[in-house]
Design a protein that fits this description.
The chain has 1256 residues and is α+β, with helices and mostly antiparallel strands. The chain is 50% helix and 14% strand. Helix 3 runs parallel beside helix 5, helix 37 runs parallel beside helix 42 and helix 39 packs antiparallel against helix 40. It catalyses: S-ubiquitinyl-[E2 ubiquitin-conjugating enzyme]-L-cysteine + [acceptor protein]-L-lysine = [E2 ubiquitin-conjugating enzyme]-L-cysteine + N(6)-ubiquitinyl-[acceptor protein]-L-lysine.
Length: 1256
């Protein structure tokens, strides 16, 4: 019975194994791949994600990140079904969490579930240290049975397969299967035993279980199960000084890297040598037993033939070649298959290892290659992902052993000479290329060399030729062909050979680049149509500046646009396609040339078919080409955004996801930036489709990869990563907590607050703004246009969208547009909620810090981002975050609104202020700025509907309206020389006045007289402007209506309409005019000369015309509405009989927002009544005591002018008087008008004065 194993021993060995595993990332990745290959497809994705979480914990230097990653991994493992990989990951988690007991139990679960995989590939070290010491009886049983089977063969345990009969071979295979089964069964038994030992700790000694033998083996094991297994192993040579014997990895009599003294075997007859691991074929014969069987003259003859062939005449060379061929035929049985020969050592493999590229090499040779700093495969030149070599290719090693035993061949025999054309023929062709003065001979020699190269059967043959062809004289000879030959076949062949040689030997490239003219020659050949030359140019890597000077980029684009080029017509394949070389070179040029050149090249690419070929390169087998394609496409998208749609439609993104972990940080950032630009399409559903691909496709979790990269990226790089990660996290319905979302938003805010790096601050603010999610067809952000639209400046948004649609020929379906708008709003609300909710509005502190700096670009983008988020606060549930935003940003928004001269900037600040104004706390904070805000709102209300709405709110909320609506006199002009001022009107910054002497005056700002004209012969009673035609209409007592054209400096009379009546109170529409004649009723005059009398039973005093409805205020206090289209008459207010012979007429009518304001007598205590034009109902009144003669109505105020020189100002909403303005008490106010913005009141008086009043 073997000795018992203690809990501390078990934990010590497992801890050592796990520590080594964690310290070796390449080995750990190999173990993960091994496990994943054994798993069902349904478990691949969750376990891959968990393994990435464990990797994050291992690689992170932050304790908090490590703890959160470990907690995440452990919780996910507990919710997934148990399997060997999950147990292995759990052991790593426990080990990292400093729980050795739990780590040991989980690792033993792996051995119990998969004993064969564990001892052979996962943890052979643990198998040696823990299990093997107990299995001495199994190994002795196997050795005894094997000796019995091989009894009778001459070499006993090292017999040759050809000497076995069928029964022996079958018995040996059956024995091996039984041996494997015994190891598996007992691994499980002892794994359970070790788990019991660990669980009980040091409480009591638990004896190890007996070795379990299967049925049929029990009779043979009785004498083997007694005694100490550990001592038995020592007796048979399995004990090494550090107890690290492993029968799995050992060679047969060759230490394979272990100490020479290990496993020393007794030579006595009684001693039996144990097999270290059963093999499916007999053990190969040691070299010292077979060395004498190799024909001694073979190698000597070959060397002589080889040397003589180089120097003899052609006839002698041919004769020797025949001798060589006959010798080769005699020695065929000694020639190894080419797959058994290392291409580096040219010897049969002793310890073959197969790299990830598929090439197999001798371990010692490839290890020396890697130790020299080479990280590429010597043959394929593909980059190796790890410098650690894989395990021995035991399948190939056993095949070689079988072949050696069958052919009685020494393991050190050298491979035979290749069956390709002799080196002498090649040498003659080389001599012709280098020295011949006859062009045709040299050209023929080039073709012969190419044929020899093609006929070389093995890589070893090509290596021999490579040594001969890479000499500088030979390379120069090929270049001479390029300079002098005009034969296309020769030129292409020379380029092909130089490319093949250059791809294998850097010295060839060095030789070619020593002379600039050689490079220029090769470039010219490419430009003239020899596309294969491009492959050679890419190998030479000339300076980018010289390539741009030679206009190479244009030809590269043409090559990519033309898909018909092929190198197959000469029956050879180059190691790289010309179009692949074009992609690599374009990427190199774009990365290194000036900004101006890069912009020009990218624009050219985006406008041609070449971009489609570059998109295809995203799926290229080589990682380098995929990365180059990304680099080109990214620059094209940034330069010409409309190509983004082509790329998004045709690009396969999964190949890029697969290499995301393989490339360097710079390339990884470029790929992530490319992804970020792709999701700036003008359709939300297309963006989400791409995001879903990025999130769900690929072998590894994209989100976890981005998270790991984000935690280690520089500040200026992290914003792009954070933006993409946040979009991926919010793609589904967000969870309450997400490590991805928290890390992404933290990174953005951290960059916003990093005042030492303005570039990172700008990038962070731009990323936040891009999360708004609305883009034009060319990928430009629509954030500003959309926010201006929300601020009431819709014209700029509509104009921009129309230009974009016309420029890109977009025909949007109304249904699709509505669906996109809904999707955009849903996305915007979701993103904004999580941004502002993070750490209770911490993002506003970051934006405020960005706004506090002096960098104009940073201020601008932070202001836009802050405006958007503050606006969204008005749409989101109030959780108190609005107060945090107000504290951080209110002062800045007030400052912009008060001081900025740009209308759009003020509109944006107004949009932000609107969110604060609508809450009591915000109004209180704004109390000291109310007058300044009102002034700005009045200026904006002409272009923004929101300004008008905010004015309403402020007027309702403010307790003292007089403080808000105070007026001051701006200017006054005495025109008494022209009599009374009978009519005034305003249009586009100009004031027009009509006087009782027939004069019309045009005034500029501050009543600066621009023009005075007198074409009417009598008093001008009416002035009105038709805005649709920008014409001024004047009516006079001289029975004419004059139509004036308004220019910048003057007005010109362009038409005179004669009517038969004096004109009072003229109102006009597009094709008619209405006025009050001298008698009763209303005269309707058409511009074609016809006229008719309306409402003739009434003595009309005033008129108002709105949207085809004519309103008449009459002498008897009645008010009628006449539909000019149908002629229908409606009665709004009935007339009253004269009281004591006195009439009470309606003196003034004004219509605004569906309300009719009528100024008349104060029969019921209200001089001004307010009626609804829709149902004729009385909705209010102004209880003024003035004798009102004229009236003007603005969006907020009502102005009443009396016959005693007093003007009352009333608030429309509160129906309260806010102010009285006093003019000359001895004069009457005859007319009133408001400017276009409703900010300036103009009055005309009976004493000939014009006055202007403005809001102070």
């Amino acid at each position: 019975m073997s000795t018992a194993t203690t809990s501390s021993q078990i934990q010590e060995q497992i801890t050592l194994f796990l520590s080594e595993t964690i310290s070796q990332p390449h080995h750990r990745r190999h173990l993960h791949t091994t496990f994943l290959q054994k798993l069902p497809p349904t478990l691949l994705k969750p376990l891959t994600f968990i393994s990435q979480a464990v990797e994050a914990a291992i690689s992170s230097t932050s304790p908090s990140v490590r703890a959160s990653s470990l907690h995440l991994a452990e919780s996910l493992l507990s919710s997934n079904p148990t399997n060997p990989f999950s147990s292995f990951l759990l052991s790593l988690v426990h080990h990292l969490s400093r729980r050795p007991l739990d780590a040991s139990l989980s690792m033993l679960d792996v051995f119990e579930a998969e004993p064969s995989l564990s001892r052979l590939e996962i943890a052979p070290f643990l198998f040696q240290e823990l299990f093997l010491v107990h299995f001495g009886s199994i190994i002795e049983w196997y050795d005894g049975r094997r000796s019995e089977i091989l009894t009778g063969l001459g070499l006993e345990s090292i017999s040759i397969l050809s000497e076995m009969d069928g029964g022996q071979a079958a018995a040996l295979k059956e024995l091996e299967r039984g041996y494997e089964g015994l190891l598996e069964d007992n691994c499980r038994v002892f794994a359970r035993y070790f788990k019991q030992v660990v669980q009980r700790g040091g409480e009591e000694m638990i004896l190890p279980p007996k070795i379990v033998f299967r049925e049929g083996e029990s009779d043979e094991r009785s004498t083997l199960c007694e005694g100490d297994d550990e001592q038995r192993i020592k007796t048979h040579g399995f004990e090494s000084p550090n107890r690290r014997y492993n029968p799995i990895w050992g060679g047969e009599g060759e230490g394979e890297g272990e100490g020479e003294g290990e496993g020393e075997i007794s030579n006595t007859a009684e001693s039996k040598r144990l097999s270290k691991l059963p093999s499916l074929s007999p053990v190969r014969v040691p070299p010292d037993l077979l060395i004498n069987q190799i024909p001694s003259a073979l190698t000597h003859d070959k060397e002589n033939i080889k040397k003589e062939a180089l120097f003899d005449s052609t006839k002698q060379r041919r004769k020797k070649r025949c001798v060589d061929d006959s010798s080769m035929e005699d020695a065929t049985t000694a020639n190894a298959p080419k797959d058994f020969v290392c291409l580096i050592t040219t010897r049969i493999f002793d310890d073959p290892v197969t790299l990830e590229t598929g090439q197999t090499y001798e371990r010692a040779a490839i290890q020396e290659w890697v130790d020299r700093g080479n990280l590429t495969c010597p043959i394929t030149r593909h980059k190796l992902h790890t410098p650690d070599l894989p395990k021995t290719n035991y399948v190939l090693k056993r095949l070689i052993a079988t072949w050696r035993e069958r052919n009685n061949t020494s393991p050190k025999s050298v491979i035979a000479q290749p069956a390709t054309p002799s080196n002498g023929e090649l040498q003659l062709a080389i001599a012709d290329v280098c020295t011949s003065e006859i062009l045709q001979e040299a050209e023929a020699a080039v073709l012969r060399i190419q044929r020899c190269w093609k006929e070389a059967e093995t890589e070893a043959d090509q290596q021999t030729m490579l040594d001969m062809l890479t000499k500088p004289p030979v390379i120069n000879g090929f270049v001479e062909m390029l300079l002098n030959s005009v034969d296309e076949q020769v030129l292409r062949t020379a380029v092909y050979l130089l490319s093949e040689l250059g791809s294998r030997d850097d010295n060839v490239v060095a030789t070619l680049t020593r002379v600039d003219s050689d490079v220029e020659c090769i470039v010219q050949l490419f430009k003239k149509g020899l596309h294969e030359a491009l492959v050679l140019v890419s190998l030479l890597r000339p300076p980018v500046e010289s390539l741009v000077e030679m206009e190479l980029p244009r030809y590269l684009v043409d090559t990519l646009s033309n898909t018909t080029h092929s190198t197959n017509d000469l029956n050879f394949w180059m190691f790289m396609e010309p179009q692949t070389a074009a992609v690599l070179m374009l990427a190199q040029i774009l990365r290194s040339c000036s900004q101006e050149s890069s912009s020009r090249i990218a624009t050219n690419i985006a406008s041609t078919r070449s971009i489609e070929r570059i998109v295809v390169a995203l799926q290229a087998p080589q990682t380098e080409e995929r990365v180059a394609a990304v680099s080109i496409l990214l620059r094209c998208i940034l330069e010409d955004g409309k190509c983004r749609n082509i790329v998004a439609q045709k690009a396969e993104l999964v190949p890029l996801l697969e290499i995301l972990l393989q490339v360097g940080d710079e390339e990884r950032l470029e790929i992530i930036h490319f992804f970020s630009e792709l999701v700036k399409l003008n359709r939300r559903n297309l963006n989400e489709k791409i995001l879903r691909t990025l999130k769900d496709e690929g072998t590894f979790s994209t989100m976890h990869t981005l998270l790991i990269y984000l935690q280690n990226a520089r500040a200026e790089q992290s914003t792009v990563v954070a933006g993409l990660l946040l979009q991926l996290d919010l793609l589904e319905e967000p969870r309450k907590m997400s490590i991805y979302r928290e890390e992404a938003i933290d990174a953005l805010i951290c960059c916003l607050r990093n005042s030492e790096c303005p570039a990172a601050q700008i990038s962070a603010a731009e990323t936040i703004l891009s999360l708004h999610g609305r883009f034009s067809y060319s990928g430009k952000s629509l954030s500003r246009a959309v926010l201006l639209k929300r601020a009431g400046l819709e014209k700029s948004y509509v104009a921009f969208m129309r230009r974009d649609q016309r420029r890109h020929h977009i025909s949007a379906n109304a249904q699709d547009t509505m669906e996109d708008e809904r999707a955009d709003e849903e996305w915007e609300r979701k993103v904004a909620f999580h941004l502002v909710s993070h750490e209770f509005g911490l993002v506003f502190e970051g934006l405020a810090q960005g706004l506090s700096g002096s960098n104009e670009e940073l201020n601008s983008v932070c202001f836009m981002a802050a405006t958007w988020l503050i606006y969204m606060l008005s749409l989101l549930p109030d959780t108190g975050i609005r107060g945090a935003a107000r504290v951080c940003l209110l002062d800045h928004f007030v400052s912009v609104f008060k001081s900025d001269k740009n209308v759009e900037e003020r509109a944006l600040s107004m949009l932000g202020l609107n969110s604060f104004i609508r809450h009591t706390e915000g109004l209180q904070d704004l109390a000291g700025h109310t007058k300044d805000i009102l002034k700005g709102l009045r200026e904006l209300k002409k272009s923004s509907s929101m300004a008008f709405e905010i004015l309403k709110v402020l007027s309702q909320e403010h307790d003292n309206s007089a403080d808000i609506w105070s007026h001051q006199e701006l200017s006054q002009e005495d025109c008494s020389i022209n009599g009374e001022v009978v009519a005034v009107t305003c249009f586009k910054g100009k004031l027009f006045s009509g006087h009782s002497d027939g004069t019309i005056k045009v005034w500029g700002p501050e009543l600066c007289l621009i023009q005075e004209i007198r074409e009417h012969t009598k008093a001008v009673t009416s002035l009105t402007v038709l805005h649709s035609t920008e014409k001024l209409y004047s009516g006079s007592v001289d029975r004419t209506v004059r139509i004036w054209s308004i220019s910048e400096e003057r007005i010109y009379c362009e038409q005179v309409e004669e009517v038969k009546d004096q004109i009072n109170n003229l109102v006009v529409a597009s094709n008619i005019a209405c006025f009050i004649p001298q008698g009763g009723g209303v005269k309707l005059h058409s511009w074609n000369g016809s006229s008719k009398l309306l409402n003739q039973n009434k003595n009309v005093k005033c008129l108002a015309l709105v949207q085809g409805k004519l309103y008449c205020g009459c002498q008897d206090t009645s008010i009628q509405e006449i539909d000019l289209v149908t002629g229908t008459l409606g009665n709004i207010q009935s007339g009253s009989k004269k009281l004591i012979g006195k009439a009470y007429p309606v003196y003034a009518l004004q219509v605004l927002d569906g309300l009719l304001y009528a100024a008349g007598p104060s029969l019921d205590g209200a001089n001004v009544k307010i009626w609804s034009t829709s149902n004729y109902s009385l909705v209010g009144s102004l209880p003024s005591t003035l004798d009102v003669r004229t009236m003007a109505v603005s969006s907020e105020l009502v102005y009443l002018g009396s016959k005693v020189g007093t003007i009352e100002v009333w608030c429309r909403k509160k129906i309260s008087r806010v102010e009285s303005l006093q003019t000359n008490l001895s004069s009457r106010i005859l007319c009133m008008a408001l400017d276009t913005n409703h900010d300036i009141l103009v009055i005309g008086t009976s004493d000939g004065r014009i006055q202007t009043w403005g809001l102070s």
